[in-house]
Amino acid sequence: MTEKPSIKPPRTSLDKNTILIGQKPVMRYVNAIVMRLGEGSEVIIRARGRAIPTAVDAAQVSCRRFFGGKLAVSNVSIGTETLDSENGQKHNVSTIEIKLFKKE
Hints:
alpha+beta; Translation Initiation Factor IF3
């Protein structure tokens, strides 16, 4: 029996200031945000599906707890991606992109 190769969507190039949110604990992403903001003045948080609440939590914890009002949200973008499943069906998945920047 031959195994069917899995079809993965093409990867887009990510900026070094982009953090992709997944299933890790919120504080791991907060740590990543703090580290990236130590190198620059802006960070982009991207998530989709069930990871969206984690992205929002990471952004809020970073703004309120670690930067004490010196970090702000510059833009929030929402959207929908259409993904192909293994059985040929298409699924819509919600997406979010949160841009944070350091106030001077």
